[in-house]
Amino acid sequence: MEIDENAEKLKSLHVSSLDEEEDESEAPNDDVEDDVSEDDDDDEEPVPMTLGFAEKPKNQWSLLRQYFPSKAGGIPAWLDPINLPSSKSSVCDFCGVPLQFLLQVYAPLSEKSTFHRALFVFMCPSMTCLLRDQHEQWKRHPETPRRSVKVFRCQLPRVNSFYSREAPAVDGTEKLLTAGALLCNWCGTWKGDKICSSCRRARYCSSEHQTAHWRSSKSSHKVHCRQLEIPGEASESAASNSLWPEYEITNEDEFEFEFDDAEIFNDNGPDNSLISRSRTDKSFEKLQTYFKGHGDTRSWASFQAKVAVAPDQVLRYSRFAQAKPLWPVSSGQPSILDIPKCNYCGATRCFEFQVLPQLLYFFQVKDDGQDSLDWATIVVYTCEDSCGGHLGYKEEFAWVQLASQREHPASHFLK
């Protein structure tokens, strides 16, 4: 399908699919050797990669769902605002608490059914649950998968009941065609299926969030219950003070940053360097501290060399068939057989994007002890066919690599 001028104006982290250019026979299959080592990739041709950067938005309206944003933190801008994931899918499978919104990527494809397409990542902020998740993700074909990190894919054709078929106005005046589902007043993320029995207005996705709102020192529902006025439509804010800071994810092609590494670190380098020395030094100081002492020098050196051209990147995206994730450490990498096939159509899942540990620093996550959230990378694999169907959101697969599981203080909780 040709995408016209209006469609091209849509803001996205869009990387053109090779569906029309690549032979499907090149997709990986179960007959491939159980090994994903990338140590001998030096002779391979470079694969186009889009880098995502966390930036404070110039205009807050640009993060609303009618502008199809890529964003991190805050609350999700649901693409399908009505048919949200089920209440069972929305919670951590270990502690039962609703998952917290991490980020979303707007990534449309060239097919009619994927004119609009977005991927949403959620996770439990508990490191204890993430460590348990590590044990579960290694289980091949579990009868009942349990995860603390979940990914949902949503896609819509150009003509749909939620958005105009034309590109949105870039002045903040774009209006919604339909209201969304009523969301939880505490997290602003999941459907508010539970109602306060007193005021009959406040809505919650869970008893945990109702209790949290009632006890909150910032905006206690206990104080405002009787006089609370809540509009009869989806809220664009949340009362919770524990959400991660909100950023817009902007994107650049990696090749635009690929210049001599010496220019990055040379004090006498050009004034128009894409990355300032102060920002580079600060980013690498944090990353080096993060991986220091893990005894994985070779993988870290490879990771460092690749991200050096743009050390503030928080996301790497590519749907090219040859694209591979960048692993910060050699341990904890999956084989092809560890990536389950699509739950809905049985197609192979392929790498689409990864979240880098730099995002933790933008989220101001503190390394303050036994339950401090921490990861090396989160790699997202999605259905190669991006299959459709009646579900508003289909669950995809995330592989989480930790810098070191054995040394984390929370690991003693695992049995």
UniProtKB/TrEMBL annotation:
Region (Disordered) residue spans = 1-50
UniProt domain MYND-type: residue ranges: 184-225
* Segments of skewed composition (Acidic residues): 18-46
Q: Name one GO molecular function term.
A: zinc ion binding
Keywords (A to Z) from UniProt: Metal-binding, Zinc, Zinc-finger
Q: Which domain of life is it from?
A: Eukaryota
* InterPro entries for the chain: PDCD2_C, Znf_MYND
Q: Which Pfam families match?
A: PDCD2_C, zf-MYND
Compositionally biased spans, kind Basic and acidic residues? 1-11
What name does this protein carry? Answer: MYND-type domain-containing protein
User: Species name for this entry?
Assistant: Penstemon smallii
